[in-house]
């Protein structure tokens, strides 16, 4: 599917498809649901499971859209990743240590088996179908962006 999207004249269509796939794959991710349950339990209901699930899913969906745009338009990974992690490190200073731990755990669970399987296949396919893109490099960037999104979101 990704390769066919990459071969289209309007290969930008990979961006909205990636957003939808990122959202759905994260909703289905078992590790995300377990983390949401544990955070709600530990926080005494202060952070509801549903809110956390939606925010993680929206964050991953946006990051998959950005990653697909990176593949389609040939944006270097460091142009997105470096400022993103700088922002994450700056936000650590102003956040509670509890929320920092949950944010980094969210990034880890968002890159679980469901998300990686579907999103990675999509990114590698789009890269293979887009002239001048290396599927190995583009796939690596996809997972790093998926891990960054929940950290910035929380």
Give me the secondary-structure topology.
Layout: H1 2-7, H2 14-28, H3 30-42, H4 49-73, H5 77-93, H6 97-110, H7 113-129, H8 135-153
Report how far apart the termini are.
32 Å
Number of strands: 0
Query: Taking Cα atoms only, what radius of gyration do you get, to the nearest Å?
Result: 16 Å
**Low-confidence parts lasting 5 or more residues at pLDDT below 50?**
none
Profile the largest sheet.
Answer: none
How would you classify the helix and strand content by structural class?
mainly alpha
**Helix content bin:** over 70%
Whole-number mean pLDDT: 89
Residues in β-strands, percent:
under 5%
Give the H and E element order: HHHHHHHH
The dominant shape is globular
* Number of individual domains: 1
- Please work out how many helical segments DSSP would assign: 8
Report on this structure:
- The mean pLDDT is 89.
- This protein has one domain.
- The protein has 8 helices and no strands.
- It is mostly helical.
- Helix 2 (14-28) packs antiparallel against helix 7 and helix 6 runs antiparallel to helix 8.
Please provide a brief summary of the model.
With 154 residues, the chain is an all-alpha fold. The protein is built from eight helices and no strands.
What key phrases describe this protein's structure?
mainly alpha, 8 helices, 154 residues
């Amino acid at each position: 599917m990704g390769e066919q999207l990459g071969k289209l004249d309007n290969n930008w269509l990979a961006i909205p498809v990636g957003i939808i796939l990122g959202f759905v794959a994260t909703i289905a991710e078992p590790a995300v649901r377990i983390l949401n349950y544990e955070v709600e339990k530990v926080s005494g209901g202060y952070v509801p499971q549903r809110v956390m699930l939606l925010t993680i899913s929206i964050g991953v969906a946006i990051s998959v859209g950005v990653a697909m745009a990176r593949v389609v338009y040939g944006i270097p990974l460091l142009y997105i990743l470096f400022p993103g992690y700088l922002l994450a490190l700056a936000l650590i200073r102003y956040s509670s240590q509890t929320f920092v731990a949950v944010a980094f755990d969210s990034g880890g669970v968002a890159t679980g088996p469901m998300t990686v399987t579907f999103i990675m296949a999509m990114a590698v396919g789009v890269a293979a179908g887009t002239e001048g893109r290396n599927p190995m490099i583009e796939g690596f960037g996809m997972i790093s962006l998926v891990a960054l999104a929940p950290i910035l979101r929380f």
